[in-house]
Amino acid sequence: MIQIEKDYPVPEGRRPRKYPWREMEVGDSFFTPFTDTSPENARAAVYAANKRYNGARFKGTVWTENGVDGTRIWRIS
Q1: CA nearest 59: which of 28, 17, 23?
Q2: I want to staple 72 with a disulfide (CB 3.0 to 4.6 A). Which of 13, 20, 63, 66 is the partner?
Q3: Smallest Cα–Cα separation from 43: which of 19, 15, 77?
Q4: What string of pLDDT tens digits covers the 77 residues of the chain?
């Protein structure tokens, strides 16, 4: 028989988010170098964020910043 136990704390559950989607306002952007993510992963993350965050729209493009290749992602609406 399974014993029911009380007062066990619930674990946090979710891992930390990699990108700051929820904190962004229209016009905000961030840069992620290709050492942290691949172009394909960044593109997939933008696509998923556009589906997940109702009404918010994001756009990303390949970008070079201070000689480092990566992706810059903007919140556009």
Answers
A1: 28
A2: 63
A3: 19
A4: 888 888 888 777 777 788 999 999 999 999 999 987 888 899 999 999 999 998 899 999 999 999 999 999 999 99
Place of tokens 């691949």: 38
> Is 20 a domain residue?
no
Q: Is 15 contained in some domain?
A: no
CA gap 43, 35 in Å, rounded = 15
Q: How many domains does the chain have?
A: 1
Cut 0.85: pTM above it: no
Q: Which residue, 36, 40, 25, is CA-closest to 60? A: 40
Residue 47 to residue 17: CA distance in whole angstroms: 16
